[in-house]
Amino acid sequence: MCCILIQYSLATDYAKLASLAQERYGTNAHNTILQLQAKINELRNASDIEKLKGINDFFNNQIKFDDDMSIWGQQDYWATPLEMIGKGRGDCEDFTIGKYVFLRELNIPNDKLKLTYVKVQIGGPYSKIFQAHMVLSYYATPTAEPLILDNLIGDIRQASRRSDLTPIFSFNSEGLWVGGENSGKTDSINNLSRWRDVLQRIQADGIEQSN
Amino acid sequence: MSIFKRIWQLVITTSLLKQLWIAITLMMLVFFGANIIVNLISSKNYLNKQLEMKNIDNAVSLAVSISQMKKDPVSIELMLTAEFDNGHYHYIQLLDPNGQQLFARDSANENSHVPHWFTDLIRLNAPPGIAHIQNGWSQYGTLKLESSTNFAYEDLWHGALVSLAWSAAIALLSGLVGTLILKVIVRPLNDMVKLTEAISHKNFISIAEPKTLEFKRLAQAMNLLSARIKEMFRDQSKLLEQMRLEANYDPASGLMKRKYFISRLAAQVSNEDSFDEGLLINAHISNLAEINEKLGTLETDKFLKRMGQALNNVCELNSGLFAGRLTGADFSLFSNSASDQESLSTLISHVLTEASADISAQFANFKLAITVNLVSKADQFAGLKNLVTIINESNSADEIELLGMIYNSDSALYADKDEITWRSMLSLALDNKRLTLAKFPVLAADGAIIHHESPVRLQLEQDGAWVSAAEFISWAIQLDLITRIDDLVVEVALNDLAKGSQPIGLNVSTRAMCNPLYVEKLVSLLKKYSAVAQYLWLEVAEDGVFNHLEQFNAFCQALKPFASKIGVEHVGAQISRLGELHDLGLDYIKIDASVIRGIDSNTGNQAFLKGLCLIAHSIGLMTIAEGVTSPAEKAMLPTLGIDAMTGPGISL
User: Fold this and answer.
1) Which ipTM value was assigned to this complex?
2) pLDDT in tens, A1-60
3) In chain A, what residues touch B139 (CB-CB under 8 Å)?
4) Closest Cβ–Cβ partner in B59, B128, B138 for A145
5) Which of A138, B207, B359, B456 has its CA 20 to 30 A from that of B238?
6) What is the pLDDT of residues A125-181, one digit of tens each?
7) How far apart are CA B256 and CA B260, in angstroms?
8) What is the mean pLDDT of residues B243-269?
9) What DSSP assignment string belongs to chain A?
């Protein structure tokens, strides 16, 4: 009974996600969730590369890039996938988080995925314009060169082919989902890092994640 | 279950104060126990959160820093070592992407004062902080660290100890405050218990009304009971006094009857402490028979009444005087002081002549013969015998015997000694403790020993005779050695008791009873011999008690803690005041020989004694008859309610 309960709870609750989208953001958002659900179901048994491409394209096509200030009226806001889909807009973190969450949903192991802070050179190799940016890196093996999922460039490339990006720091949810026990049900929002906060909100939206 | 029942039984049967302490202890245990547990749990949760955050933050900041560095193993090791050595870590690990360990530091044996059972109980389990180190696009490794929990355990342990100390202190304080409050609350209850106990011992005291409503009503009711009984007692005493008057006073003249007069006379003269010299004035009417024949009984009684009234008037004006009608024609008056011999005899002669003026006018041969006799201490016995013979020719052997019994003191061995000799004799005797106690048994009706009356005997010369107080008392008083004798008597008595002697009865003189130093000494001796104090019977003479009621009360209060028996001796003359003694917690009365003497033939005194015993028993006093002489008296007394007897006729 206990095991069934846990398994059930780990599955993403699309019905909840869809009804929340309907309730908060309207039919468009609801439809996007349904499309996402269809996409996930379609990719369930695909190869990692197909999964990466499917999810990357889905978000890059569905969501319009914008900055937090114009979307949320805040300097820096980490939106959940539901919020991003609801608004139909997102900034680089929101894209990266959304792709991470649903690739994890497609059973790509945590240690293959990293959210990576990068410095991006805008306007060619000689440009002096740099911007803070975030991408999702995929490591086929621990020591492999990663594939980069970015919202600025539509197709997935090897890291070595992204000379415009300089990695600064990578992270994922490793160590944060300790058996679900420290998922922070008793934490007040103030106590959480931005990352844990968004993970928690994602979970509240009905997307279950395991370590 | 039965154990709980027994514990419960123990708890509910213990004193209120102990119950309070148990309640407070339990309350504090539950309250502070719960408090400490809740505190520990919330502290533990808080500390766990803090530790988890610290773990994550430190791991992330280290990983961010190292990600920016050149990945030179020595630099990385140095950096991690520096972090480990200067920070508070349980361990820091660096694993390569394949899970191989690149670096590890572990403070395996963390020293701590906190006992293991406590850390096992609390078990802080904050998850380790994990962060990834990048080397360009490739993964360099995973950093895993956990902070040291020592400080947290120490903090919790210390907090628990402080809570425990505070709760113990608060429990103690509330216990003390509660005890104090409870004592104040139940103080009236204690008084009530004392009152009830006193009443059960037939000791009808009254108490101050407490302020608490319930206690107040109870106290009022009990005080009322006490007052009622007091009243009843007073009425009975009055009735008895009436009976005593009827038994001992001559109805015609209102003066004392012969026997009573002689008893009183004997008592006065035999008072070793106070008597020195006295006067016995006798008036004899020569022709009373003729007067009676001529005038008739009615007129004669009127005449006798006038004579008695005249003498009683004189007695009322002078304390220390009393008068009696010894035979039909003999009136006597005794004064315990001989200093005003002239004026007193003139006065008596004058009032009697006046009272008999119309009789002497009617009868030519009427003659009032007044004789004045000096009674001095030196020749008490011979003098009295002589005097009684003078005043009453038909004097029976009875009275001679009575007087003889009271005055059978040894012939004065040391009468010729002067002051200096007396001082050295007494001092030496006391210094060498040549003091002993004579023994005269007081026996219950069934022959059981109540105690031994133990008058003092001194050996004034080495190997000399043991002499009684009559011999030395006046010198002892004069030389101010009497307190030493009094103190020594008590000490000898208690010492005898400690050696296993049967109960001892001591006569405490009025003078000693009124002396606070003596009472103090007595108390300290009783404290020393507290184990045998209950076998000491202390008695004070009736006139001393009633003349110094306040001191007697203090005396009784001082001795109360020791369970020594306290009594009044020579009871008889002031029965109507017996009620004043009801709340002193007395144990016994000794009824004066003047009441006991010839009781078997004196129906008036029988009724009186019966009433007296009844009252005495109703307030819990044992009744002892003094001066029991004849077997007839001895047989009669128990039937009147006498519990025990002493006197020449009583021996083991």
Assistant:
1) 0.80
2) 343 333 334 467 888 889 999 999 999 999 999 999 999 999 999 999 999 999 999 999
3) 114, 139, 142-143, 170
4) B138
5) B207
6) 888 889 999 999 999 998 899 999 999 888 999 999 999 999 999 998 887 754 344
7) 6
8) 79
9) -HHHHHHHHHS--HHHHHHHHHHHH-HHHHHHHHHHHHHHHHHTTS-HHHHHHHHHHHHHHHSEE--HHHHHSSSS----HHHHHHHTEE-HHHHHHHHHHHHHHTT--GGGEEEEEEEEEESSTT--EEEEEEEEEE-SSTTSPPEEE-SSSSS-EEGGG-TTEEEEEEE-STTT-STTTTS-TT--GGGS-HHHHHHHHHHHHT-----
Question: What pLDDT was estimated at residue A205?
Answer: 86
The sign of the CA dihedral A184, A185, A188, A194 is positive
Between CA B174 and CA B427 the distance in angstroms is 61
Options 3.40.1360.10, 3.90.400.10, 3.30.70.270, 3.30.70.20; CATH for B250-406 is 3.30.70.270
Mean pLDDT of B630-634: 89
Q: Which of B49, B68, B129 sits opposite A191 (nearest CB)?
A: B49
Cβ contact (<8 Å) for A160 and B137?
yes
Region B419-645: CATH code: 3.20.20.450
pTM score, two decimals?
A: 0.51
Q: Does pLDDT of B400 surpass 60?
A: no
- From-to residues of CATH 3.20.20.450 in chain B: 419-645
Residues of chain B with CATH 3.30.70.270: 250-406
- B538 has a pLDDT exceeding 80: yes
8 Å CB contact of B67 and A169 = yes
pLDDT of residue B615: 83
A171 vs B53: CB contact, 8 Å cut-off? no
The first and second tokens of residue B156, run together, are 């919790």
Instruction: Report how far residue B53's alpha carbon sits from residue B211's, in angstroms, rounded to the nearest whole number.
Output: 64
Six-digit token string for B295: 């005038």
Look at A168 and B68 and tell me if their CB atoms are within 8 Å.
Answer: yes
Residues B418 and B466: their CA atoms lie apart, in Å, by 19
CATH 2.60.40 is held by the domain B12-173 = no
Average pLDDT over every residue of B450-469: 86
Pairwise CA distance, residues B231 & B122, whole Å? 76
Say what the pLDDT of residue A76 is.
Answer: 84
B67 touches chain A (CB under 8 A): yes
CA nearest neighbour of B309 among B359, B356, B267, B265: B356
A174: contact with B, CB 8 A cutoff: yes
Question: Could you tell me the two tokens for B533?
Answer: 């104090």
| B405-442: pLDDT as tens digits | 444 444 456 767 788 888 888 898 988 888 989 889 99
- In this complex, is the C-beta atom of B97 within 8 Å of any C-beta atom belonging to chain A? yes
Question: How close does chain A come to B2, measured CA to CA in Å?
Answer: 43
Contact between chains at B139 and A139 (C-beta distance less than 8 A): yes
A189 CB within 8 Å of a chain B CB: no
User: Beta strand B504-507 with B456-459: parallel, antiparallel or unpaired?
Assistant: unpaired
Beta-carbon separation of B134 and A168 below 8 A = yes
CB contact under 8 A, B137 and A146: yes
Query: CATH 3.30.450 spans which residues of chain B?
Result: 12-173
Q: Give strand pairing partners of B543.
A: none
Contact flag A169-B53 (C-beta cutoff 8 Å): no
Tell me, rounded to whole angstroms, the distance of Cα B171 from its chain centroid. 37
Residues of B in contact with A179 (CB under 8 A): none
Residues of B in contact with A171 (CB under 8 A): 60, 131-132
Please name each of the domains of chain A with its CATH number: 2-205 (3.10.620.30)
